[in-house]
Amino acid sequence: MTVSDTTSTTLSGIGVSPGLVAGPVARMAPPIPEPEIATLEPSRDIEKECERIALAAQRVKKSLELSAAEAKAEARTLLETTAQMAADPTLTSTAQAMVREKRLVPERAVWESAGTLAAMLESLGGYMAERTRDVQDVRDRIVAVLTESPMPGIPRLPEPFVLVAADLAPADTALLDPEKVIAFITSEGGPTSHTAILARALGMPAIVGTGEKVTDALSDGDIVLVDGTKGSITINPSEDALRRARELASRVRVFNGDGATKDGHEVQLLANVGDAAGARSAAEAGAMGIGLFRTEFCFLDQPEEPTVEAQVEAYQGVLEAFPGKKVVVRTLDAGADKPLPFLTDATEANPALGVRAYRTTRRDPEVLDHQLEALAKAEAATEAKVWVMAPMISTAGEAEAFTQKARSYGLKTAGMMIEVPSAALMADKLFEHADFASVGTNDLTQYVMAADRLLSSLADLSTAWQPAVLRLISTACEGASHRGRPVGVCGEAAADPALAAVLVGLGVASLSMTARALPDVDAVLKSVTLAECQELARIALDAATAEDARAAVRAKLPILEELGL
Ligand code: PEP
Ligand code: MG
């Protein structure tokens, strides 16, 4: 949609990470296409063409080194390794040999030479196989120089900018430097994709699913105001709009670590984290513990299973941030948009419905054993209270097998995620085995509504405001209450302050979210009593549509307007 006044134009998409910022647009160049197999015209000087390859590789190496010098820790190491690859003589000398022997055009020769090198590294396995990505990255950059195409990847500018791209993979998003990239806008992507989740964790306003028309309308250097709450993008914003953005950015709300409703009903407000740094900032933000540690985020790029020692180190770093507090650790949730090469099968036709998450134990049970062993060791070395849960449990048999196995490693509190409708419907039976459950509303919504969470075109279905999703959460809470087991929510629904009140009314005992959402959720919960939350839950369960549920609940929470939420 486009709304224009005399100077500004407002475009819209799906706001997935809140915040209001303004800055210049920098577009991410499209991926470099494979150059055609073509030979040099007879008039071309072979040696000059070989020289062009060497110069292009030099230029790529220098620009990567410059970027590395400016980048922060993790990104710096990555860029330095890629720069080393650009300096590797094998890549250039093989390409030059192809130009001399086959008269291939340089860009094609570089492409083929990189293919040979990547295959060789792949066959060596381990650390060497991990370098395949660097070879491809360097190949694309050299080809871009040779063909005078825009450099692929995240643009590198001296000033902070708003990144505009077709799509971003979770691995790319995790490496964005929030001091450089102040917001991002993508034409593709859904509201509960892991890219959106990472944007919220980084505190980076983000708008996805705008469609190509919107991203095409944004040119490098355009000044835009990005409202990640509303999903609006204003080109050439007015001075007034910019002032309001600055004002809102300067308001700081804090959470004191005492989650409760107005009448003192305790609601644990916990954090979702993916690594030790995230856990430390969550502790600083006042989180009462961790409600979801996505362990797979520690190993997203690794081609092979991490050793038990490496796992102990990664888990210990997170547990150490919360001595004496609850830390809910989820076992590896690989699959769909989080493939782990050592655990998931990239050739499945429907990965969201395939051998993913807990189901990977059918094929590789020892990976879970190693993880539980590492977790027990990490727990023994720290003072955190570890609760362990498995993702995507679907049957009582799976709940029984997982919890028994976890306990056999000395992990006392073992539970499950409720993300598959069958688990919510059969909750009373599953709680015969599980000590607790955490509802993953992102996947639960995807499976109840049969709507891929990555698709922006189905965003209206992909919301936990859907009464069908809320009814299943209510069923899960009832199933747990017979046995006095706690149910939490760790999907994105927990970070929506209005929905959080509804979830408390449904009987949810803890809400886990990106640490940045804690103050807003806390402020709204402190404005209502438990009885009022229960009334809001009744209203939402009784609504015919997600839009009706949201509108009716929000109308009863005037504090949302006051807080600008
Ligand atoms: C969920 O599905 O809601 C969840 C918390 O797990 P993830 O988003 O990592 O799939
Ligand atoms: Mg999930």
Automatic annotation (TrEMBL):
Molecular functions (GO terms): kinase activity; metal ion binding; phosphoenolpyruvate-protein phosphotransferase activity
Cofactor(s) the protein requires to work: Mg(2+)
Keyword field contains Transport: yes
Binding positions for phosphoenolpyruvate per the UniProt entry: R294, R330, N442, D443, R453
Domain Phosphotransferase system enzyme I N-terminal as annotated: residue spans: 12-131
Name of protein: Phosphoenolpyruvate-protein phosphotransferase
Catalytic activity: L-histidyl-[protein] + phosphoenolpyruvate = N(pros)-phospho-L-histidyl-[protein] + pyruvate
Protein family: Belongs to the PEP-utilizing enzyme family.
Enzyme Commission number(s) of this protein: 2.7.3.9
